[in-house]
Write a structure and sequence with these properties.
heterodimer; A: 3 domains; five-stranded mixed β-sheet; 11 helices; 7 strands; B: five-stranded parallel β-sheet; 5 helices
Chain lengths: 485, 149
């Protein structure tokens, strides 16, 4: 394509060059025509002067009239410059130069004849002049001068004809090249047009393909989103039903454990009464069962069921949180975190810790309850796992980056082993020394909420070096962004 | 409850254990009314509307209803009882494990008289049932025969 266009432009430029060249040739040619006409004019002037002088000479001999002598002198003075001009004009042509030389010799001869006759007649020797006129070769000389000068004119005409032929050829060539270039230009134009049409067609086709692909993609995304939402709803429903249905048997276990305990009380009372009145009927096994084994078994069942109850409640809470409809609103994060600080003031003071909000935090549009929950959990965690070796310091900071708000909750507490960084976000999983109450729900809750808000949360920490929890949220929450989480 | 017309307590509860615990604790509260127990919705509805001894044909009743039943949702039974029919004024006590706000609202919207969440903690559970028993002892139950007026 580019080659073709270059070829087309090349042809146009070439045609232009040829045209320029042809025009300059034309100028040269007209100069040459002028030149030929000049030479011819000078030549005929020359012939005329020679003839005139010769005619005047004869008139002078015949009549002796002084006017003829003036004509002869006049012709003689004018002849030399004309011959000089002819010589100059034809200096480029060796043959003409030779002829000019011949003419010059002949003219000199003729001049001699003329001067001789003029001088004789002026001296009154008319008869002698007539005699000389009869015997000298002036007639041949004049004829020769005429013939040579006509030859020269002919030569000039011949040259001119030759040049005209050349000029005609050049013009013909020019027209031919012009036609060729025009043909090429038309060809290139047609090819370009065809190519452009083809490209346009291909472009519109690919655009159509792209659009349909895009439509399909949107459809695919919608479908996928729907699938994910359905799966998500199913998981939440599943979590809800499981946790809910698990509670039913738990009620029975706990209920009948209580019944058992009550019954054990009655049995123990019986054993005690037997001990008091008839010790022999109470066997040691029965006594051990009523006093130690049964209460111990019941206490284990009870502790386990209580724990199970807490876990089930945690799942329920999470699944309920997932079903809650989020209501985005503009949040002044500095004020929100200060609010959390106030609610935790007592615990911060009793831990001897300092709490710092660095600068102003970025404003976001999100769900207030969820955001409050996330930051309360993170800050409470920081408070909970401070190091006993140094005064606690908790810092909250935030910035915006690539259209997202990044918040960090940093503490100088006991830190988290890097191996556990992912694990701490899992439900019921905890890390480090288990010296604090908790079920391993807080961070799982934080992560679930962050996902729901279209955000992510991660943790950077080393043991005994404190921890930084980083939360990245969209500055403006929209339902589509959160839909997949 | 009126002296001359004994009020039947109809308990619709799929979990035998729960039913037993509820009955025990109601009895501990000193309630001696007849308690009929059904573990599924179909037989309970049949008894409510078509049985000769059932409340629709014979005397006043009070319904203790669990929402999670194997063959239908307790909500449907509640809607049926509280909809048009001879039992629309029959008191219904929903006694279930669900403490979901939406579920509770829906039950009251449908006309449930009392909604109680079964506490998992048995002491609380027992106490709640005993208090329900005390409540049952003083509650006035409308006569079914007067409903058509």
């Amino acid at each position: 394509m580019i080659l073709l266009v270059a070829l087309g432009f090349g042809a146009v430029v070439f045609a232009g060059c040829v045209a320029a060249w042809t025009i300059s040739q034309g100028e040269t040619y007209s100069e040459q025509v002028d030149h030929t006409h000049d030479v011819e004019a000078q030549l005929s002037e020359f012939r005329l002067l020679v003839e005139r002088a010769e005619t005047a000479r004869r008139g002078y001999i015949l009549t002796g009239d002084g006017r003829y002598a003036t004509i002869i002198d006049d012709a003689l003075t004018r002849i030399a410059p004309v011959l000089g001009a002819i010589g100059r004009l034809t200096a480029d042509n060796p043959r003409q130069v030779a002829r000019v030389a011949q003419l010059r010799d002949l003219t000199l001869n003729q001049k001699l004849f003329l001067e001789t006759t003029r001088d004789m007649v002026a001296a009154g020797r008319n008869a002698q002049a007539l005699r000389v006129f009869r015997t000298d070769t002036s007639g041949q000389t004049v004829a020769l001068i005429r013939a040579v000068s006509l030859d020269m004119a002919e030569e000039e005409q011949r040259l001119l004809a030759h040049r005209s032929d050349q000029q005609r050829d050049a013009v013909e060539r020019f027209y031919f090249i012009l036609a060729l270039a025009g043909f090429l230009v038309i060809l290139v134009g047609a090819a370009s047009l065809w190519l452009i049409l083809r490209y346009t067609k291909a472009l519109s086709e690919s655009e159509r393909a792209l659009r349909s692909l895009n439509d399909n993609l949107e459809g695919a995304v919608r479908e996928r989103t729907r699938d994910l939402q359905r799966a998500n709803e199913e998981i939440q429903r599943f979590a809800y039903i499981v946790s809910h249905d698990l509670r039913s048997p738990l009620v029975n276990i706990m209920g009948f454990t209580a019944e058992l305990e009550a019954a054990t009380g009655a049995i123990r009372e019986l054993i005690e009464r037997a001990d008091a009145t008839a010790p022999e009927i109470a066997t040691p096994e029965a006594r051990a069962a009523a006093v130690d084994d049964l209460p111990e078994a019941i206490s284990f069942i009870r502790t386990s069921t209580q724990k199970m109850d807490r876990l089930i409640n945690a799942i329920l809470k999470l699944s309920r949180q997932g079903r809650r409809v989020l209501a985005p609103e503009a949040l002044d994060m500095t004020r929100l975190i200060s609010g959390i600080e106030d609610s935790l003031r007592h615990r911060i003071d009793s831990a001897g810790a300092t709490f710092v909000i660095e600068k102003r935090l970025p404003q976001i549009v999100s769900d207030r309850t969820a955001i409050e929950q996330i930051f309360s959990n993170l800050i409470e965690n920081a408070l909970k796992y401070l190091s006993p070796n140094r005064p606690g310091r908790i810092v909250v900071r935030g910035r915006t980056e690539d259209g997202r708000a990044i918040f960090e909750v940093e503490d100088n507490g006991r830190g988290i082993d890097p191996r556990d960084h992912d694990r701490v976000f899992d439900l019921f999983r905890r890390s480090g020394t288990q010296d604090q109450p908790g079920e391993g729900i807080g961070l799982a809750h934080v992560r679930a909420l962050a996902y729901r808000l279209g955000g992510v949360v991660d943790c950077r920490s080393e043991l005994d070096r404190g921890a930084i929890f980083r939360l990245s949220l969209p500055i403006r929450y929209s339902a589509e962004q959160g839909a997949l989480s | 409850m009126t002296e001359h017309e004994p009020v039947n307590i109809i308990m619709i509860e799929d979990d035998e254990g729960h039913a037993r615990l509820i009955e025990k604790n109601i009895r501990r509260a000193g309630i001696s009314n007849d308690i009929r127990h059904f573990t599924d919705g179909t037989s309970a509805l049949h008894y409510l509307y078509h049985d000769e001894q059932g409340p629709a044909l014979n005397g006043p009743a009070l319904v203790l209803l669990d929402l999670n039943l194997p063959d239908m949702s307790g909500i449907d039974i509640l809607a049926k009882i509280k909809g048009e029919g001879p039992l629309k004024r029959t008191p219904v006590v929903v006694l279930t494990t669900t403490d979901d706000k939406v579920e509770i609202q829906r039950c009251y919207d449908l006309g449930c008289n009392v909604y109680i969440t079964k506490p998992v903690n048995y002491e609380n559970f027992a106490q709640a049932i005993r208090q329900l028993g005390l409540f049952l002892a003083v509650i006035q139950v409308p006569d079914v025969s007067g409903e058509e007026e």
